Amino acid sequence: MKKLKYIVSSLVLFAILTNFSFAQIDRSVRPTAGSAPEIKIGESQTFTLDNGLKVIVVENHKVPVVSFQLSITVDPIMQNDAVGYVGMAGDMLRTGTKNRSKQQIDEEVDFIGATLNTYENGIYASSLKKHSDKLLTIMSDVLLNPTFPDDEIEKAKKQTISGLTANETDPNSIASRAAQKLIYGNHPYAEIITKETVSNITRDKCVSYFNTYYKPNVTYLVIVGDINLKESKELAKKYFGSWTKGIVPKHEYQFPDKNIGTRIALIDKDDAVQSVIKVTYPLDLKPGTPDAIPANIANEILGGGIFSGRLMLNLRENKGYTYGARSSLSTDRLIGSFEAGAEVRTSVTDSAITQFVYEMNRIRTEPVNAEDLQLTKNVATGSFARSLERPQTVANFALNTARYNIAKDYYATYLEKLNAVTIEEVQKMSEKYITPDNAYIIVVGDKDKLIETLKPLSAKGIVELYDVNGNPVEVEAKQFVKITAEQIIAQYVDSIGGKDSLEKVVSIIQKAKTSMNGMTINLITQKKAPNKFAMEMLMNGNLLTKQTFDGEKGKMKGFQGEKELTGKELDEMKTEAIFNQELKYNELGITLNFDGVEKIDNEDAFKIEVIKPNGEKTIDFYSMSTGLKVLSRQTIVAPQGEFVQSQKYSDYREINGVKYPFLITISGVQNMELIIESIEVNTEIKDEVFQ
Fold it and tell me: Among 135, 324, 580, 671, which one is most buried in terms of CB atoms within 10 A?
């Protein structure tokens, strides 16, 4: 098992080095403020079909292109134990109809050079005007006659689960999931997609949602481009007039509690060298309201992404805690949100949080200066102007105006309202919407190093612990678990076949594959007792790198030629070449520490620290029910810095009386799946292989 860690580390470092690049930016130069451009937004015209479909037309005759955007405007629903089926129902629309297979849809869309995308509660299509009839024939077929093929749903479920697996150890994804669950309370927005909920998605659920909510009387069709009102009416009636209207359920939910005080939510990530910080809370701020523009300006000054943002200047330029600290303020018709965050060194996590709170309070109490306000206005003006280059932006403006009941001239006069924002308004909006005293401060990092330092930052002096999906966890007191690290290792040895079976293995040939940047990488690993090792990494049959150890000397071959290993590299290979390391921890001078019980994929697992004589540490987790190793974590040193890398072991299979994992899911700085294709035990391997 230990050799897998070496293979994974080599694979990850190869991926890092082949993708590593630097970008040099002169951050001492403040962006030059530009003049506000004159903005002209096409006026919209509207009509409604007999079935209730509301159509918005925005003429733009600059290029012969027309886009069609269908938006189902319904209340969100609670998806309970099958979270994700609403989005999947939208995604599946394009995977087959009563008249066309997915392949036929793809081919017909590609043939006319068009775009056709389906997604949660919507469809977007665009093509040259001359192909509008052909495009709408396909689009209407997708909308009115979807079949939701079982095989496509299962394929989508597997892809989704694979993506979720990769995100399980990504600290930013963990923080986002926790924020979603914590700030939205008992609301559909709080539901998060997990592997378990995706597994519960069925075709029946997708079909039921489609049949219930996809109705023309709750839908907008926005047409933008080289088309007039008369042509739009003809096309809308021809392709969507037969769509049958119906009664659509409405749902109401309670707004989450905003008076929560300052709460610290900590998600443990063993031995993390950095902490992810996210300060967040819900907002009652709807699109198009008078507060929306000045509140956004206040956030931009605080940390909305521009280099002069106060969070960036403080935490990066002044304190050197992070490469970037930013904030965002989002409007929504039901529940908006505020979020500020950064990745910082573990040792400065509490100090960084203190500075976040300081800057959030400062913008509430101190007026901003005129120069910062004007710079922010200029940046926002340029961003708004550039967004108009996309026809879909204009379509969204028209759609938002209709469904949010926004003033018809809201976007046409947007820059006028933007440039009218005053220093006094910025402070007023800050007092109203930037509230660090009622916020969740979510931290993903090393619990053991952080928990005591974070307690003083909580209003109640406590740190609340959560798992990677935002569920509360209870601290397992290791003193109540009557077992030692050595006993756990002994159980593991028994679970994979026992000491006698392991000692009968004198050689192993393992063939594996993985995917990296869309390319298939093959790995061939060979080991021979007592301490010979060879690993080849190939792509399309071509050797990328080869590492060998003959019991005394180690070599590495690759793009830059061949070199003999010395020092630390040779010592590491000597250790990794040893057979059955778990049987020889004492002999190797490796120290074991039992560190309690944790949940791994909702299963209790023993946690053990494995410390080498040089101080390098790996955290291993062993299932309490099966005894098998389920997870390992260690720190990878790369050119960009130190990263925590995890290997999840699964699909154990027995070969000659010994169980081996046939799937290793790697996540952290590089996410991939290592699929073991074959393992040969006690096959003769000539010593020349290790030269």
Answer: 135
